[in-house]
Design brief:
The complex is a heterodimer.
Chain A: H1 17-34, E1 48-53, H2 59-70, E2 74-79, H3 91-99, E3 105-110, H4 115-121, E4 126-132, H5 138-152, E5 159-163, H6 170-181, E6 185-189, E7 205-207, H7 210-213, E8 219-222, H8 227-231, H9 238-245, E9 260-262, H10 275-278, H11 285-304, H12 308-312
Parallel strand pairs in A: 1-2, 1-3, 3-4, 5-6, 5-8, 6-7, 8-9
Chain B: E1 2-12, E2 17-26, E3 29-34, E4 43-46, E5 51-54, E6 56-61, H1 74-83, E7 86-91, H2 102-115, E8 119-122, H3 138-143, E9 149-150, H4 159-170, E10 176-178, H5 183-186, E11 191-192, H6 195-200, E12 204-205, H7 208-224, E13 227-230, H8 236-248, E14 251-256, H9 258-262, H10 284-295, E15 301-302, H11 331-340, H12 346-353, H13 355-361, E16 376-386, E17 405-415, E18 418-422, E19 425-426
Parallel strand pairs in B: 1-4, 1-5, 6-7, 7-8, 9-10, 10-13, 11-12, 13-14, 14-15
Antiparallel strand pairs in B: 1-2, 2-3, 5-16, 16-17, 17-18, 18-19
Helix pairs in contact in B: 4-7, 7-8
The chains are: A alpha/beta, B alpha/beta.
């Protein structure tokens, strides 16, 4: 099986469980490549990829870049803020310009939901969504799922609580779409002003109390709080937010003994997560970053290269 | 020129006619609507199987001239109307300059006479520059032929200004057309708030942003004993408020667009900005309420809110795209298709395109009464065509029905006794 019949990876909502499994399975040998002394394989030699980030990011962009390099693809990062956007060029023209330089694949992050879908419709390049507005961040959810599966052995039947600003979170959405496809029980918890409508239709349970939400859970995924949400009147203060929703070992007492603590980063220590939780043995936050590279290698390989069997060979 | 429109089914709600009759037209006026008319020297047009109706009126159109001729102008917009089966348009004042003075209103009327092919009545701005602060020169606008007042597209947020506008318009017996949107609540929303805004990750606009201002404006209408018309109504809650107001005997009317009847918020998942419109496409529950309100008479008329936009402002990121649909050339077909599917009632829809708007605006139009000006719309209820915006007469191609096969299209459009469009082609 290949991912080649799929031109783009825009979100997990439209992906099948089998496709997700293929990516997660392929990430296992990729992680093995990363642990070698010589981390480079020639698989994608002669392929070219570009990352185009219309929003600031260090870890996701770097993760895609090193993933491409480990596979010997030529990787270029377009620093958008200093380029054509400032000169008033339309997105369509920017994309066309990049395309005709001969790139095979584009990784795009954009603050406006649906922009990768728009780009994908307008280019022959393969497109990977590295986060669009509040919509999806599929590679983050894939690396979260890989991390959980690696630690727990399976995703089936696990209870996962996602904590924080669900309304504005692409990480939450992609996790919900991905995890529910594997039979996880997904709970969300946060201030009522940051919970979007209609989640019950997705099979997700909503809580306002952190203690109740984490009761008996296997995984807690903590979302970053954006300062501008407080400024736009969605909750009274960061202090009050921390009082109600900061994930700490005390608050997690009702969770399973071996609960995993995830965070997509960068963390606001003392706001959405306490240092004690972030640095605890239950925390897999640093492993998420490592796994992010492996998952992105798997994805680049499957989209530009070949089948799972080839990498094992 | 003398025409005998023969053998079509005449539907003329104003005269309560719904049967096969011939229509004789001479010197620009309707002479007779009778069975088996014999008329020597008339050009006979065989309309067997066709529907013959009074010329359709669209009371909510953006013709973009003056100021935005790259989107549309009166020449192109009225040609789109003609092909789409409309004989009369009312154009909204959000031009540049805004239609808030005698000069601009007169300019639009003159341009319409010179370059237009259908009747055009301007709508004057309620407030200067549509800024929602000071009333426009309303007496001047009336003198220049404006048939209603509106700040469409820019809701009047100050209740005292709206109150004064309604009160002042009363002197001239003009309706105020209100775009009902609480801007503090809709903020920078991109689509209807609900399940689909959640899963598409777009900022939602709650239905209540519309309901709140509909409620406010109805109360102000009661306070001032004036005439209110709600533009492009789209929510269940707003319909309930209009029903109450009508029961109470207030002079409150409303319109609905074909796209709010036919398309739901689920469509936005393509992130194709042609689905972006204000008010936003609503959920299926609201659509069901709208259809019920069309059929039970709560909604008075159908209007397109024809909002042409140049390609660059639609072919872009969803959040950056302009709102609106170039709808004149698909409105009738969309409604006919819903009639063919048994969702809407033919007689009711024709009434909403003719008598409904004529009454609201006090126009001597919308009927086939003898001696009236011969504005006539003929529809072929069985014609099947795929919507292709590339062949629009409108300068703008933003239309979410593109690629859809629709059954029931305008066949012939006659304005003042002259055939101006036939089978989707302009006759010049």
């Amino acid at each position: 099986m290949r991912l080649e019949q799929r031109k783009d990876l825009l979100g997990l909502r439209d992906m099948s469980r089998e496709e997700i499994e293929l990516i997660l399975d392929t990430a296992v040998p990729m992680k093995d490549v990363m642990s070698r002394d010589i981390k480079k394989v020639p698989t994608l030699r002669g392929k070219a990829m570009v990352t185009v980030f219309y929003e600031n990011s260090t870890r996701t962009r770097t993760s895609f870049e090193i993933a491409g390099k480990y596979l010997s693809a030529d990787t270029v990062n377009l620093a958008v803020s200093t380029s054509s956007v400032q000169k008033g060029e339309s997105l369509k023209d920017t994309i066309k310009t990049i395309e005709v330089m001969g790139f095979d694949l584009m990784v795009i992050r954009h603050s406006m939901s649906g922009t990768p879908h728009y780009v994908a419709r307008n280019t022959r390049m393969r497109v990977i969504n590295a986060g669009d507005g509040f919509n999806e961040h599929p590679t983050q959810a894939l690396l979260d799922m890989f991390t959980i599966k690696e630690k727990k052995g399976t995703l089936e039947g696990l209870k996962v609580a996602i904590v924080g600003d669900i309304l504005h979170s692409r990480v939450a959405r992609s996790n919900i779409y991905g995890l529910t496809k594997f039979g996880c029980e997904v709970r969300v918890v946060g201030p009522s002003t940051l919970i979007p409508p209609g989640l019950e239709k997705l099979g997700v349970k909503t809580y306002y109390s952190l203690e109740q939400a984490v009761e008996d859970v296997d995984v807690v995924n903590v979302l970053r709080v954006q300062m501008e949400r407080q400024q736009s009147g969605l909750f009274p203060s960061l202090d009050e937010y921390a009082n109600l929703y900061m994930v700490s070992p005390e608050r997690l007492q009702g969770a399973k003994e071996d609960v995993l603590i995830l965070h997509p980063g960068p963390m606001n220590r003392g706001v959405e997560i306490s240092s004690a939780a972030a640095d605890s043995l239950n925390s897999v936050i640093n492993e998420q970053v490592t796994n992010g590279v492996a998952v992105r290698m798997a994805l680049l390989f499957l989209m530009m290269g070949g089948s799972k069997d080839e990498i094992l060979a | 020129m003398k025409y005998l429109l023969k053998g079509g089914k005449v539907i003329d709600p104003a005269n309560q006619i719904q049967e096969v009759r011939d229509v004789l037209v001479e010197d620009g006026r309707i002479v007779a609507v009778e069975k088996d008319i014999k008329a020597a020297g008339a050009e006979v047009i065989d309309l067997q199987g066709m529907i013959v109706a009074p010329g359709f009126i669209d009371m909510h159109v953006h013709l973009r001239e003056p100021g935005f001729e790259y989107k549309e102008d009166i020449a192109s917009g009225t040609r789109a109307a003609a092909v789409g089966g409309f004989t009369t348009l009312c154009c909204m004042p959000n031009t540049n300059p805004v239609i808030d003075s005698l000069t601009t209103a007169s300019f639009v009327r003159e341009r319409a006479k010179k370059s237009g092919v259908v009747n055009v009545f301007p709508i004057g701005a309620l407030t200067k520059k549509q800024e929602g602060q000071e009333l426009s020169a309303i007496a001047d606008l009336v003198a220049a032929g404006c048939v209603a007042l509106s700040d469409d597209g820019k809701p009047v947020m100050k209740s005292n200004v709206m109150r004064n506008g309604l009160e002042y318009a009363k002197m001239f017996d003009l309706p105020v057309l209100s775009h009902c949107e609480d801007l503090n609540l809709s903020q920078d929303g991109q689509m209807h708030e609900g399940y689909y805004s959640t899963i598409y990750g777009l900022r939602g606009i709650p239905a209540e942003a519309e309901d709140i201002i509909v409620g406010r404006d109805i109360l102000l209408t009661r306070l001032t004993d004036s005439r209110l018309h709600i533009c492009h109504i789209s929510t269940e809650g707003a319909l309930e408020l209009v029903r109450q107001a009508k029961r109470e005997g207030l002079s409150v009317t409303c319109e609905v667009t074909p796209h709010h009847l036919a398309l739901s918020d689920e469509l936005v998942g393509s992130y194709d900005a042609d689905t972006k419109v204000n008010p936003p496409l609503r959920s299926s529950e609201h659509i069901a309420a709208l259809i019920e309100a069309v059929n039970d008479g709560t909604i008075d008329c159908i209007a397109t809110d024809h909002a042409p936009h140049q390609m660059e402002s639609k072919d872009c990121e969803y959040a950056l795209a302009s709102s609106g649909i170039s709808g004149l050339e698909t409105a009738v077909a969309v409604c006919m298709d819903m009639i063919n599917q048994g969702v809407l009632d033919l007689n009711r829809v024709i009434s909403m395109f003719t008598l409904g708007p004529a009454r609201i605006l006090g126009l001597q139009k919308g009927s086939l009464s003898p001696k009236t000006v011969a504005d006539i719309t003929v529809i072929d209820p069985r014609a099947v065509k795929i919507v292709d915006p590339d062949h629009f007469y409108s300068k703008s191609k933003n239309n979410p029905f593109k690629g859809r096969e629709l059954t029931g299209w305008p066949f012939l459009t006659m304005v003042g006794g002259r055939i101006i469009a036939r089978e989707g082609q302009l006759v010049e």
